[in-house]
């Protein structure tokens, strides 16, 4: 199939007569686009059907590339385009006088677009690919940027992927480069879920609760309340999905007024001076634009892009972590008794043990990655035969092919750790920088600064915890609350030598840094700047190498956004961690976390956040009976080709039955869900059916990893009203799936191991 451009004249009839415009057409195996001489995509077609189905709305052509001036808050879209077929290059002219050159290279399964130059810039500090408008109105993948129609009639999706770290999912106008965490109104099926007259497509609502309790965020069970974890895909007033990626000139200093969860008193925006990054610019920004049958898009097209363009492609047991056949639950411990935990996990066929009962792991570079001392003096894992260190327990688990993990507070530099106190690092992230106006003795509490602007704001954008409101002068942390409104501008309610730092003398003209911090509730800490954050990322790889921890649950993962670089910061963090791990010979790090973003999508294996009746209620068989968290996170993950989560759930107790776990596994396989199976050794031993439960779960997991469930069967498994039993064949490559009514088989399906699995 020829994938070169075909130049043609397209005739458009309008109300005012006949106009002629030039259009260039491009094609991949499954997708074609047309770009006109104004620089707009005017056609997006599914070429796998005849006649080709058109997905570009006639009333909304898509600018190939938009320019953004963040000081003026103005977008510029192209007004003229010229195409050079020999160079595969478009030249776009803009109303502000800028001229962009873009290469468009068709591959077998996607188009690669790259910004080569923009001259003159004329105030442009951010570029945006798109918005690319579609007439798809089913599922929006707001994290990676995809419009999906999953119906059997249409079965087609259009999406984008960033091909370099400084190209991120979302629009250019988002403060802090991380989209607001909020609800929008969008129905995935207007016939099944019609909107009430009081609501309209694209309408924005804030989260529920007080803005602090993450369980209370999820407050709308109706299917047309769509929680948003990004804005790489959005909807217009008709519910049609459009896509956006952006790239910023990060070499320039700038200030943002940022909150990840706006419109809530506990999360009002703060003003943050964003650290410039030398050499990180939007020139070279590159995306893949693709269209494909939805049923094969993930493994056939998205994986092809990832491999062809050298994007992160973590694998476990030889399979890409995004392959639904590689999805798996993990064990999550409680009770701190580990004699049988490895044995349980092996029987279940799960890949990892999440030692949740060991509490938070805080990054402390003072231990150089040796959590239990260089000689493993500490033994935190309890065994009747003698307690074990991390390394000892990890080695025992690894002998059975099982990983060991901990929950950690991503980049929060806690009091008492090397980079926070008693000697704070000079590489801390700050919100504001001011000048000390007079000398200070170690005892002085009258601290006068040159400018009070924004110093009245309580630090962080989340929670605004007063005890974390502090400045740094030299090697001293100083707590304060408020600043005088008139000169001399004096900090109020001052406490010297905060967090165990030493009160010292400071000279006039010393720098006063108002620090960027986290929140309370066990997460207390200071945010590092990017250079120190790089070191923290490498520290986690060192811990993996030295102590055997290869599962991390990155609680507070959203703290990676606190420096104002948003999804870029998250990408940078995980690239550093995985890069260092590769250098050390750590083959795979599995991780979950408090959020999922375009910055972590490629690296993150699972997203097992929350749990219990908030996620999936095994008794009522619904996605979240206590809150809407289960429904909300299901919709986000499924739409973004990502494993759905049941969170920490389904603890095995004395009343647990095999039938309960047959149901859990059926829904898990049907949707592609993972979870942390709550295991307490004492409780498990009290369960009469524990061995049968282990065997039933293992049977489902073996069949899942054999990719034995075809698409039609997965759709049936999603129906919570059905009961199922899965039996393994003697050959290890076949299974019989029974649909049950009143405990009896009424329908059977023969399943086989798929080729290559």
Please mark out the parts with pLDDT under 50 across 5 or more consecutive residues, or reply none.
1-18
Proportion in helices: 10-25%
Q: Structural class of the secondary elements?
A: alpha+beta
Helical stretch tally: 10
Backbone shape: globular
Extended strand count = 44
Q: Give the DSSP E fraction (strand runs of 2 or more residues).
A: 25-35%
The N- to C-terminal Cα distance equals 30 Å
Most strands sheet: 8 strands, antiparallel
Radius of gyration: 27 Å
Mean pLDDT: 95
- Order of strands in the sheet with most strands: 9-10-11-12-25-16-15-14
Explain the overall architecture:
- There is one protein chain.
- With 757 residues, the chain is α+β, with helices and mostly antiparallel strands.
- The chain has 10 helices and 44 strands.
- The strands form 10 sheets. It has an 8-stranded antiparallel β-sheet. Strands 28, 29, 30, 31, 38, 39, 40 and 41 form an 8-stranded parallel β-sheet that branches. Strands 1, 2, 3, 4, 5 and 6 form a 6-stranded antiparallel β-sheet that branches.
- β4 and β5 form a beta hairpin.
- The two termini are 30 Å apart.
- The relative contact order is 0.10.
Features:
single chain, 757 residues, alpha+beta, 10 helices, 16% helix, globular
